[in-house]
Amino acid sequence: DIQMTQSPSTLSASVGDRVTISCRASQGIRAWLAWYQQKPGKPPKVLIYKASTLESGVPSRFSGSGSGTEFTLTISSLQPDDFATYYCHQYSGFPFTFGPGTKVDIK
Amino acid sequence: EVQLVESGGGLVQPGGSLTLSCAASGFTFSSYEMNWVRQAPGKGLEWISFITTTGDTISYADSVKGRFTISRDNAKNSLYLQMNSLRAEDTAVYYCARDRTHYDSSGYYYDFDYWGQGTLVTVSS
Fold first, then answer.
1. CA separation (Å) from B102 to A49, A55, A83, B31?
2. Partner residue facing A44 (CB), from B109, B110, B115
3. Inter-residue contact A98 to B45 (CB < 8 Å)
């Protein structure tokens, strides 16, 4: 099975900060990676697919990069609506797996 | 408008059974592969099962293999999860999620583009 790790697990930041979240796969998954944002009590929302393609309607301050085993989600200028938990998700093969999540909270 | 509405959650004793349903509307259900994903209280997301449009290919996470069964009824626009031999560690919010396929010159790519609001399953005596 492909294991996904994320760092950091928690990130404290201020509005306007540039935020970077890392995701690592235990084996190469090419670009078969998506990023999701989840707020408390709500289902996840897709932000990025194919590692770097921005989902329609998602603000351009979000971006994704990477391939193989190393991936990054970047928020160029953190906004109040961005305080949430972020998950990476690999769909290279079964079983699909999610990273453990990165909680972005207010500094 | 695409909608996925889960139902069937509740309190069940260890060793018991429960069937979850996911009612789909606003899109051609029979054209989309579907998934179940769960989230234990205060924990992260765990993918648990996948089914193709016709049900000819099904996959499960090891944590539920042999105990859970995914199925669908395209005529009823519904997805199901039969859960048997439930354990305390199965306590979670269960989401159904639509599997979306993207295709470009470099191949196929996927994500879960629509999710239901979830249904809570609590396994406790």
1. 9, 11, 28, 14
2. B115
3. yes
Mean pLDDT by 10 residues, chain A (107 residues): 96 96 96 96 97 96 97 97 97 95 94
The per-residue DSSP string of A37-105 comes to EE-TTS--EEEEETTTEEPTTS-TTEEEEEETTEEEEEESS--GGG-SEEEEEE-SSSSPEE---EEEE
How does pLDDT run across B66-89, given as a tens digit for each residue?
999 999 999 999 999 999 999 999
Q: Which long-range contacts (CB under 8 A, 24 or more apart) does B64-71 make?
A: B64/B90, B70/B36
Q: B47–A50: do the CB atoms touch at under 8 Å? A: no
Q: Give contacts of B46 with chain A, Cβ < 8 Å.
A: 98
What chain A residue is nearest to B94 in terms of C-alpha separation? A43
